[in-house]
Amino acid sequence: MSLPAYEYLSHPADVRFRAFGNTLEEVFEHSALAMFNVIVTNISNIKPERSVDLELESNGLENLLYNYLSELLFQFEVEEIIFGEFHVDSIIQADTGYILKGRAQGEDIDLTRHAFETEVKAVTYHQLSVTKEDVGYSTQVIVDT
């Protein structure tokens, strides 16, 4: 039996989710998918017309996940791109921590086509985790809504 890509957990004020993946790269992709699924009503309708390359470095996996999701949220808010596909090509351990290379694909926000569900103001460090499981990895994220 395979795990879902992500699941939403109860939280009194914000949105909390867990994501799952066989690899670190996959669990980061699923975390981004879970976050954008909170933002937009139907993520499957987003066309991969624009691509944003990402290269991030952080001193730990939790910080890397925080920076990755925050960068995607920044691109959404400032560049007005709604993402529907996430590709993390590699997460490697370096002398200074971890380096993520990948890209996100989506399209310009079009209010006539995109229905927005919930405003995500920020990714939080509260209860943020990246965990090695018996099989694969999981993350836990709370986003401020």
What distance lies between the first and last C-alpha atoms, to the nearest angstrom?
Answer: 33 Å
- Look at the helices and sheets and give the structural class: alpha+beta
Q: Number of helix segments?
A: 2
Mean pLDDT: 94
Q: What count of domains describes the coordinates?
A: 1
Total number of strands: 8
Q: Largest sheet, described in full?
A: 5 strands, antiparallel
Q: Which value, in Å, is the CA radius of gyration? A: 14 Å
In CATH terms, the superfamily is: Archease domain
Q: What does it look like?
A:
There is one protein chain. The protein is of the alpha+beta class and 145 residues long. It has two helices and eight strands; from the N terminus they run ββαβαβββββ. Strands 1, 2, 6, 7 and 8 form a five-stranded antiparallel sheet that branches. A three-stranded antiparallel sheet has the order 3-5-4, with helices on one face. A hairpin with a 2-residue loop joins strand 4 and strand 5. The longest helix has 18 residues. The protein starts with 5 loop residues before the first strand and ends with a strand.
SSE topology:
Elements: E1 6-9, E2 15-21, H1 24-39, E3 50-58, H2 61-78, E4 81-94, E5 97-108, E6 122-123, E7 129-132, E8 137-144
Antiparallel strand pairs: 1-2, 2-8, 3-5, 4-5, 6-8, 7-8
Give the gist of this structure.
With 145 residues, this protein is of the alpha+beta class. The protein contains two helices and eight strands. It has a single domain, classed as Archease, Possible Chaperone, Chain: A, domain 1, CATH 3.55.10.
